Amino acid sequence: MAMRYSIAMSYNLTLQCGCLVYVSCDPKNGLSHTRILETRGPACRSRRHEVGHRLFLWEMLPDPAYRPWPTFVSDGVQISRI
Asked: Does residue 54 belong to any structural domain of this protein?
């Protein structure tokens, strides 16, 4: 009987800076083993983000100093910013 894998073996992930990363996973356990920068974001300021380079997991984590500001929208009209 052949084994079937139901876990996704690869996916793309958009980083906070706008860069797109290709993530490849092991089909047996689903853990990612390779992360390659596919495209660089237009506003990316990281010198390390070059297309084709491998990224370590800690390089993909969000910047702890970054604090997003939520925008509330009702019926397509912006109401307020916090």
From this structure: yes
User: What are the structure tokens assigned to 64, written together?
Assistant: 């702890």
Our count of domains for the chain comes to: 1
End-to-end CA distance of the chain: 57
Phi first, then psi: give them for residue 59, nearest 5 degrees: -75, -15
73 part of a folded domain: no
Q: Whole-structure pTM over 0.85, yes or no?
A: no
- pLDDT tens digits along 12-69: 989 888 999 999 988 888 788 899 999 999 988 888 899 999 998 888 887 777 777 7
| 69 in any annotated domain | no
Instruction: Please say whether the beta carbons of 40 and 19 come within 8 A.
Output: yes
